[in-house]
Amino acid sequence: MNILKQYLYMALTAVVLLAVLWFGMKWMLKDTGISTSQEERVEQTKAVMDSIRSIGQWELTYVDTNVQVDTVVKRWLGFVNDKLQRRYYGRLSVGMDMQKLPEDWCVRTKDTVRLTLPDICLLDSNFIDESRTVLVLSENDDIEADKSIKKAMLERAKSKMIQTAVTPRVVSDARRLATDRMSERFRAIGYETVVVEFR
């Protein structure tokens, strides 16, 4: 009888040990899975951050526009007014310069990532296609050929285009597009919440 009790005791002890071992292994494997998942996300996040920084100038939208610039040159003590009119055409590229990303532009906390991006800007100041410039009116060939007048009219055309094309609505639309694109990229690697700010 004592031998039977000993066998039962040994069998019960073995069952308990196996149960403890099974639950312990299960917990360890589960913990390892979480750790691996977190490590993968960190590596994926670094890869996404590197790819974003390498974009350089990121065009989010563009505006094709044209403006007419007029000038009047007075001659002969103001008795003669010579008019000159030109129409300028340009393509204004609007987006973000990703080389201006701050060092702390991407901050991660669990399932949330906060992104601080450079604000929307005009990416290229040389947006006027001078080969498409049209002479609308010229009342004096000398004035038409004057380089200083040509340069002044070109600068006025640039200023007018920026005012009429890079509007608050265009900037707002570009910010929204950037926010959507960034959110898609970071949600794809497991982040539930993506907060985007511009500065």
Summing up helix and strand content along with how strands pair, one would put the structural category as alpha+beta
- Percent strand equals 25-35%
Categorize the overall geometry. rod-shaped
The helix/strand order is HEEEEEEHHHE
Computed Rg: 34 Å
Number of separate domains: 1
Profile the largest sheet.
4 strands, antiparallel
| Oligomeric grouping of the chains | single chain
Distance between the termini: 84 Å
Instruction: List low-confidence stretches.
Output: 31-36
The number of helical runs is 4
Number of strands: 7
Question: Which percent range fits the helix content?
Answer: 40-55%
Give a description of the structure.
It comes from Palleniella muris. This is DUF4230 domain-containing protein. It contains 4 helices and 7 strands; from the N terminus they run αββββββαααβ. It is an alpha+beta fold. It has one domain. The strands form 2 sheets. Strands 1, 2, 5 and 6 form a 4-stranded antiparallel beta sheet that branches. The protein is rod-shaped. About 3% of the residues have low confidence.
